[in-house]
Structure formats: C-alpha cells, structure tokens
Amino acid sequence: MSKPIYVLGTGLSHNGSAVLLKDGVICVAIEKERITRIKHDGGNDSDAIQYCLDAEGISLEDVKLVVQTANFEIPDRERFHGKRVFAGNEKPELVSISHHLAHAYSAAGTCEFDACVVMVIDGCGSPYQQCMDVSQGTLFPANISRLSGTGMWCEKDSFYLFDGQKMTPLLKDFSPVETPAQDQLKLPVTSHSIGGFYAAISHYVFGNMDDVGKLMGLAPYGKAGLIGQEAFDFKDGSLLVRNEWREVLNMPSSGYAFFREHFQYYADVAFWAQQEVEKAVFWCFKDRLTRFPHKNVCYSGGVALNAVANAKLLNEQVVGNFYIEPAAGDNGLALGCAYYGWLEVLKKQKVKHNASTCFGKSYAKEEIQKALEVLPENYILQELQPEDLVQLTAKKLAVGKTIGWFQNQCEFGPRALGHRSILGHPGIEGLGDHINANIKFREDFRPFAPAVLSGFAETYFRSGRKSPYMILVDHTKPEYLEVLRNVTHVNGTARVQTVEKDWNPLFYQLIEAFQEESGIGVLLNTSFNKKGMPIVETPEQALNLFLESALDVLVLNHFLVEKPDR
C-alpha cells in the first residue's frame, strides 16, 4: 500500500487558516480564530497547522509540500509574528504564492466544473512585485510595471481561466494602497477596490471594520435618497472609486449609542452602499465575461460573501453555472494554497470535491463526557441514538425551544451550516429578537438564515435555487411571510441555506423531523457564538455559551442537555 501524499496549505493574512490535503482530498481544515478565540486572528500559523497535523495523526515529516500566502509580504520560514513550526527544518519544501492566485485555486479546487473562469474581488491582494501571474493576460493600468516603482500597487480584482489542471490569468486590475488616516472614509486598503469601499463605509457606520458583513444586514432597513452621488466609475475596463460621495458623509458613528440614536440615517447610508456595490460587482462580471465568455463561473475573494450582489448576478443572468467558494474571504486562502500545491507543483490530477464544508476534527465520546462534568446537577442529560436524538430535538424546536446544535467536524468558513449552529422555530413571534438579545447578545437588526430541505426551497422561496452555503439571497413567498417571520428580513428577502442530504445527513433528518412536528420544512439557523466571539470549536466552548446564555437545549453529538424549567 502506497504512502499517502499530504499537501499543507497555510494562509497568514487576517482570518488565518490551515488546510491539509490527503491524496488531493481535504482531510482537515481549520481557521485560526477557532483555536485562539480571537476573531479574525491571523499572522503566525503554528496553532492552525498543529491542529491539522494532530487531527490527522501525523507529523510535519509526513507532509510532502507546504504552500503559503499572506498579503503584503512573503512570510519567512523560521519566524512570522513568532516562531513557526518549520523553524530549524529544511523539509518539507515551502512554496509561496500570491494572494489572488490562492483565492482562485480555492474556488477551482472545490468546484464541480471540469473547466471554468474564476473571478476574484476583494479589498487588497498582493503587491504587483510579488504577483506570480503578471507575465500574461491584460493588466490595468497598462503601465503598472512603471507605476509600481513609485509606490505600492496591489491586486483588487483578477480574472482567470482554469482548464481543470492549470490556472491562466486573463485580466488583473491593480490600485495604489492608501495608508489609513484618521478620516474614517479613507479606504483602509487599495484606493479603488470594492472591498475597500465597503470596509470604509462599515467603519463609518459602525466605528470599526471587524464585521463588514453587518452592513449587508443593515441595508434592508434603509431607503434611497440620502446620497445622490455615484461611488464608482468604470473606465476603459477598470473600476475606480470616486471622491464626491465622501463630502456628504460627515457624521461618522462614535459608538453604538450614537448609531442607535441615528439608526435610520446609518441604515440609509448602508442601503446606498449596498446598491453601489451591487452595481460595481455587476459591471465587473459583465465586462470580464464579455471579454472572456464562459458558461462555468467561479467566484472568490471577500466581496464574494455579499449574498445580495451574488443573487443579482443570477437574477440578471450575467452568469450561467455559478459556484461561489464558501470560504471566499481570506480564511479560504489556505485552501487555495493546498490545491495549488497539488495541481501546479506536484502536477497531480484534480480529485472531485464532495461539496462539504465541514473539515474540522471529531470529538470522542470521552471528551464530551469530560466537558459535561461541570454541568449543574439539576440539568437533564441524556445520551441518545441518532434517530431518538433527532426526534426529541425536533419536538423541542416545534414548541419554541432554542437549541445549541454541535456535531463533529466544524464548518470551514464564516457560515454555520448545521455542525455549529443555534437553531430555532422560524415562525414563533418574538423568538428572533430573543435570540439576538439573550443568546447572541448582538444588535437587534441582525438577520437569521432559513435552513430548508433542498427539495422544498421552491415551496417557500421565489427562485427556489440551490444555495447550500448560505451565500445567496432569495425572496420569501408572500404566503409564507408570517410562517417564516424570524428568517425573513424586513424587505422580504432571506439568505437561504438549502440542506443537502448527501453531505449533511443528520441536519437534513432534523429538519425532516421538525417538518413532521410543525408542518414547516424550514429551521432558523445562525452561528453558534455570541457577538465578538468566533464560532465555538470545542465541546467546552459550546457548553460555556449554553450556560451563559438563554439557550434552552444543548446537543453535543449524541448527548442532549436541557436546562430545568424556570
């Protein structure tokens, strides 16, 4: 029996992560923040790499190749924000690749297409001088090689062709990098990127850039008319950020109390920004696909997490077959690094991915039992067979109980898809507000996702399209607005998760059982965390949040814990 070939990918940007491929198949992947408990943690990659090695039961000596990427620098083998696991070792071989190339491989490696084009749009990629993919294809500006000698110019959007084995750059757009100033409207990354614009507006509205996705959740509360200026120009194939809009945004948020006092103003700003981003994304795809038509399109980079803009591309038929990489932000860079190593460095054939996003370690029964030793004596603890667990959990959900749902192998990426989820009834009035206030401890405008059986999406939602990664919005049908009130936004939209039986069987069975109890084939699904906290990784972390919050029931694999009646 031949020895397996392991390739390790590591991303050292913000939202750091590590991914281990075994014979071309993802066997373990983890985001650094899940281990360190620091949201968006990046830099040194030792914790994430060690997690992957331990989960697979191997050592660094068993790894054939390591591929890495960061943002503005090429990490040193020995140290990067601290000592690295490779320090003092000549093996394994360590290869560095540029930022957008890693994003592109993350999508190409996990998509179902034999061949495709790949769009990458984010806030800031690698500097021109560090890009490995500028020797062919169209570059904007055309004189970028000269301009890059006068300052730092970085990738902001890139377009590639993937033939099933090799990635070829077709077009890349660069922009100068601005150093952040006290002015909250100065872009924190490249001057003319969609991601940089969205981050700047998020900073203006919320006073920070930690969770730019919140802006998308706020936008439906807004209305048009506050700002008349356009945010972007589209000139000669390049997207540029205009300056006129900055002049009318003169009331940056000074904190949450100020934000609440002027809620409608900031909602209107968010509405405008979202509209402008949708137009910019639409233009980028339209332009690139006009130049380089292809029926199969992949998408990655932080901007690809904008579920509203993504749906518009489908609704307007700009794209045909469309795959959005679930870990589209920088947490997915390690995934692209690993696939680059397998496909480009080792010249191995692509192995079809099974569509799952759940690559974390499994926790043994004994580990869960040890975590439960601190459980108060009056809490009810049961160990159940899977069928009984599903039936009892569904009954609890049907009467309005909230569930912390923890199953082996955490999701890789920002969305909880049924392994680290908080679950609830989609229609009981006030339950959504209760979860936001007393379980998640977050803003009341934050939405929840409907997790729907894949075969019933057309029943409840206008398009009914497949959306297994909670990365596309749909519209709840009018006749189900009350039934799905907790998972439908104020404008009638919903960020849908269609649950697939083949790679998410237990969660699928739970929704089926809930449908039998309630007549509704949809559950409220949100990530198992609270404001400012990464999604829980260990049984101990899940139990701590259960005890701290108003969650009614905790499921840890086959164990079910229920708080006593209050």
Provide structural commentary.
With about 575 residues, the chain is of the alpha/beta class. Helix content is about 30%, strand content about 20%. The protein has 16 helices and 22 strands. The protein has helices at about 30-35, 45-55, 100-110, 145, 195-205, 215-220, 255-260, 265-290, 305-315, 335-345, 365-370, 385-400, 430-440, 455-460, 505-520, 540-550; strands spanning about 5-10, 15-20, 25-30, 65-70, 95, 115-120, 140, 155-160, 165-175, 230-235, 240, 295-300, 320-325, 380-385, 405, 420-425, 450-455, 470-475, 495-500, 520-525, 555, 560. The strands form 4 sheets. It has a 9-stranded mixed β-sheet, sandwiched between helices. A hairpin with a 2-residue loop joins strand 10 (about 230-235) and strand 11. The longest helix has 29 residues, at about 265-290. The model has no long low-confidence stretch (mean pLDDT about 95).
List the helices and strands and how they pair.
Layout (H helix, E strand, L loop, with lengths): L5 E6 L5 E6 L2 E7 H5 L9 H11 L6 E7 L23 E4 L2 H12 L5 E6 L16 E3 L3 H4 L5 E10 L4 E10 L17 H13 L7 H5 L13 E4 L2 E4 L14 H6 L1 H29 L4 E5 L6 H9 L5 E4 L8 H13 L19 H7 L8 E4 L2 H13 L4 E4 L13 E5 L6 H8 L10 E5 L3 H4 L11 E4 L17 E7 L5 H14 L3 E6 L11 H10 L4 E4 L2 E4 L4
Parallel strand pairs: 1-4, 4-5, 6-12, 7-9, 12-13, 15-21, 17-19
Antiparallel strand pairs: 1-2, 2-3, 6-8, 8-9, 10-11, 14-22, 15-16, 16-20, 17-20, 18-19, 21-22
